[in-house]
């Protein structure tokens, strides 16, 4: 991917295919910048010239090659600055969704003076035009990549500006405190009344803590999570994987040691994209293939976001031959609940892959482990970059609460800088570049 520098070449006109590679009903080429409508005039022949068409309209007509031949028939959408996604003049060509047509239309736009858009450059332009803040731009990225309901909901919330508003509310409290400190600095004997200083700061601290509490859920919603199934041979790991998936993905037999190589399968759980990992049953074994599988299982348990341990409820209980680190998010299951129980434990969830008993409860527990108890109607932090900035802001606010007025001011300025970086209101070019580098071309 080309490295972008966010402020260079912004007066150019850019073009890209906006739809996914491959064949589809309709495909879109987008052109944005000062020459967009002039390019459209040369590329498109309809009832009217695009440059003579008011913004917000579409034209039906022919898309023309260099010799005036028809490449396809399609639509031209006309947007006029500042009333477009980027804030610039934009022409969109909606063609039949063939890579051949889209490739030739794009080539023609480039011949007519556009240059290929860099990854995320349409959205970058929207950000630089002040139409989106950086949290909204990142929400666009998360929305394009969303596969599941929770990811989609959070991205839509972020796109509406809800996350930026949460951050701005904190920033207002910090500014308020800073100004009351500044107003009293000339009167060194007075100091800011404790209450005037602590109330907004306490509120800011609480809100930043709440925001940071959403970072894990945000990461899981956007990146997904890995859930490893761990237990002795025959505990019912593969059966549970199949039951959760709703189809027979993994081989199940009464022979202990059936699963040797690990196996992954994707599904949506709690509206979150999840990879379930079935592993070899843990035991000492002479079989070198199985032993390698057991080693893998231990490694997979270590790398999983959640570990589900399974113990056969119809057999005498045996301890898991594996120490999970105390920080592991683990759910313990007693399997084969349809059979007479050889043991019970109120701490352990009972499930039966055979009857489906306990699976709704298991899905709910998994939802809690994955997302925590954050409110789904509030905006969550949507990237590591945002979480990092929020963390720095929180540290400065905490310090400010313990320091005398003049030193507190310095910490509050720092906290405000971190928040401005979060929303992108005041941010270094390289941070912006790093955000947009993750986009695809055409977005
Ligand atoms: N064809 C197409 N569909 C798309 C986009 C696009 O660029 N093209 N979008 C891009 O990712 C998203 C929609 N986002 C957009 C946001 C603002 C404007 C826009 O023109 N706004 C003007 C006019 C508003 C109005 O007419 O009410 C404005 O805000 O002034 C267009 C698309 C999703 N669907
Ligand atoms: N009655 C009953 N039998 C089950 C249940 N789940 C699994 N079994 C049986 O238990 C045996 C082992 O099941 P698997 O799912 O292959 O167990 P596993 O943990 O994957 O075993 P390995 O791959 O050998 O480690 C099979 O005969 C299953 O039919 C259940 O919920 N109820
Ligand atoms: Mg198995």
Please describe what this structure looks like:
Belongs to the TRAFAC class TrmE-Era-EngA-EngB-Septin-like GTPase superfamily. TrmE GTPase family. It is an enzyme of class 3 (hydrolase). The chain has helices at 36-43, 99-111, 121-128, 134-145, 149-159, 162-184, 194-212, 215-223, 237-245, 288-303, 359-371, 384-402, 405-423, 429-436; strands at 14-17, 24-32, 44-46, 57-64, 70-79, 90-97, 115-116, 225-231, 263-269, 272-278, 306-312, 330-335, 349-350. It contains 14 helices and 13 strands. Helix 6 runs antiparallel to helix 13 and helix 12 packs antiparallel against helix 13. The protein has 443 residues and is an alpha/beta fold. The chain has three domains: 14-131, Gyrase A, domain 2; 141-214 and 379-424, Up-down Bundle (Four Helix Bundle (Hemerythrin (Met), subunit A)); 221-371, P-loop containing nucleotide triphosphate hydrolases (Rossmann fold), CATH 3.40.50.300. The model has no long low-confidence stretch (mean pLDDT 94). The strands form two sheets. It has a seven-stranded mixed β-sheet with strand order 3-4-5-6-2-1-7, with helices on one face. A six-stranded mixed β-sheet has the order 9-10-8-11-12-13, with helices on both faces. Bound molecules: the ligand Nc1nc2c(c(=O)[nH]1)N(C=O)[C@@H](CNc1ccc(C(=O)N[C@@H](CCC(=O)O)C(=O)O)cc1)CN2, guanosine-5'-triphosphate and magnesium ion (MG). The ligand Nc1nc2c(c(=O)[nH]1)N(C=O)[C@@H](CNc1ccc(C(=O)N[C@@H](CCC(=O)O)C(=O)O)cc1)CN2 binds next to loops.
